[in-house]
């Protein structure tokens, strides 16, 4: 009994050791039990399914804005990664930006750059800069593989619980994927990101929006407006992105650094809306 437990621990340790990815933004080693080469196809499939089951808005000014701002954030990410020695990091990304007709106050970016913005968030993002703040943040979760880490953590729990019968290509993977990304109809409830992942996404997102030419101060205003929506029925985005005074203060403190980073890319003026 003891012996098999040791074997399991050894296997888990080896798995974790062999399955680390480096977060290019923080330099930190992160857990990646499911490599992006497996994760991205699942994400792309789930994204297409989501689009087929929801009303995608095309050709309107708002839909164009989502594409425009999303593209700018993607270009900013590529410029930052290239300049910091991570050429090719986005090779397998297939960016897509869609506006979906849904009153939920929400937006997300799945692995590989698959973005959805719900119409319900637009009254809170207001202009382009507010949308850039949301997309910069959501894209940063994807770039830093936060969902993947959450999925890896769930897999480890399962391995611990059921022994070694967890194959990486198991059907259970889809359940774990949906739990990590929250778009599956069966699971549906995405767990909130951890405080440290939120701070990381805030920091990276602020830099990206600044490099994209948007005033990072607008992120502070955006989260203030978002928090003001709280109360009895907090918006969906708030349920996965708990916001509070310290978060807003932290964002405010990070603004000068984001602007400084953007200046390295020749960006000296920042759009307010
Ligand atoms: Zn977040």
Structure report:
The protein has 273 residues and is α+β, with helices and mostly antiparallel strands. The chain is built from 11 helices and 6 strands. It has one domain. A 4-stranded mixed beta sheet has the order 3-4-6-5, sandwiched between helices. The chain has a two-stranded antiparallel sheet with strand order 1-2. The radius of gyration is 19 Å and the shape is globular. The structure holds zinc ion (ZN). The site of zinc ion (ZN) has 6 residues, from α5 and α8. Zinc ion binds next to α5 and α8. One of its GO terms (cellular component) is membrane. Keywords: Hydrolase, Metal-binding, Metalloprotease, Protease, Signal, Zinc.
């Amino acid at each position: 009994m003891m012996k098999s437990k040791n074997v399991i621990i050894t296997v888990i340790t080896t798995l974790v050791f062999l399955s680390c990815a480096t977060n290019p933004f923080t330099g930190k080693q992160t857990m990646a039990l499911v490599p992006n080469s497996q994760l991205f196809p699942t994400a792309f499939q789930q994204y297409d399914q989501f689009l087929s089951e929801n009303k995608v808005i095309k050709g309107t000014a708002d839909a164009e804005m989502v594409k425009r701002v999303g593209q700018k954030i993607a270009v900013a990410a590529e410029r930052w990664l290239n300049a910091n020695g991570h050429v090719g990091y986005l090779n397998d990304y297939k960016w897509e930006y869609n506006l979906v007709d849904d009153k939920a106050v929400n937006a997300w970016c799945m692995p590989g750059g698959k973005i959805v913005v719900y119409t319900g968030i637009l009254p809170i993002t207001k202009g382009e800069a507010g949308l850039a703040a949301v997309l910069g943040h959501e894209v940063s979760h994807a770039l830093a593989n936060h969902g993947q880490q959450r999925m890896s953590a769930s897999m480890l729990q399962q391995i611990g619980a059921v022994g070694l019968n967890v194959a990486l290509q198991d059907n259970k993977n889809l359940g774990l994927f949906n739990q990590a990304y929250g778009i599956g109809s069966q699971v549906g409830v995405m767990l909130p990101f951890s405080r440290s992942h939120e701070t990381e996404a805030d920091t990276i997102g602020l830099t990206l929006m600044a490099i994209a030419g948007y005033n990072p101060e607008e992120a502070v205003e955006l989260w203030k407006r978002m928090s003001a929506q709280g109360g009895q029925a907090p918006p969906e985005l708030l349920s996965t992105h708990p916001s509070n005074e310290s978060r807003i203060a932290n964002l405010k403190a990070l603004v000068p650094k984001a602007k400084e980073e953007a200046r390295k890319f020749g960006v000296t003026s920042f759009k307010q809306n």
